[in-house]
Amino acid sequence: MKQVWFAVLMLVYLNFSMRAGTVPICGYGQAECQVPSLADLFDRVIQQSSRMHGISSDLHSQFEQYFFPNKNLIGKRKCHTYGILTPDDKENAQRLGREELTEVILMLLGAWSDPLSQLYWSMSQDQNQDFNHYTSNKALEITDMVHELRDGVTKMAEKMKLEGVLGNTVGYVSPESLVPSSAFSFYKQGELDSVDHHDLLYCLRRDSNKVKNYLRILKCTTLPGLDC
Fold first, then answer.
1. Where is the signal peptide (predicted)?
2. pTM of the model
3. Along the 228 residues of the chain, how does pLDDT read in single tens digits?
4. Backbone angles phi, psi at 34, to 5 degrees
5. For domain 37-222, which architecture applies?
6. In whole angstroms, what is the distance from residue 22 CA to residue 45 CA?
7. Fewer beta carbons within 10 Å, N or C terminal of the chain?
């Protein structure tokens, strides 16, 4: 009987733990919602950005090995986010104010929503190559991650505003405000080829690394002393 009661109590505990772990993060003061600290929000978006950069880096490397084993690529790659002015090193990023750095992060994330959707659509059309099918699925996964990360950074910015460490001028940046924001319009009209796919994956790896590093710098300038 003791063993039975112990098993019942364990099931109740596991059920409570699973439910407690899935409590949604929502509006401040709303019932049955967790209100994470600013440090927690930073940790979450940094972990998400690191995961996104890891996937994009692996995808870019695998794509190069599959299509361009000799890496004989002609011309210099130019990313569709060339119009977004970003600090080129850690020192310059640290010189930016929190408002400016947050805006840069949101602009970079907003600029990738449409190109990733176009990349997924273009690759998914070619069902004859198993690698393109694999890559298109990964592109779709990263598309979801970009949306989640952008929402997470937006929530983090709102928390920073509430705590008075970020000005109220920082807001959501829509992809439509960036020119050019479409992968099709930036490269060419029609279906993208393997070189276009490679360029997009190269630029995604580059920009995801920027977002990851900028978030870490933003955390250190906002919450100094926490793993900085």
1. 1-20
2. 0.77
3. 444 343 433 443 334 333 333 344 454 445 556 678 999 999 999 999 999 999 999 988 888 887 776 666 655 667 888 888 999 888 999 999 999 999 999 999 999 888 888 888 777 776 556 666 677 788 888 989 999 999 999 999 999 999 998 887 665 454 444 444 444 455 555 567 777 888 889 999 999 999 999 999 999 999 987 666
4. -85, 140
5. Up-down Bundle (1.20)
6. 17
7. N
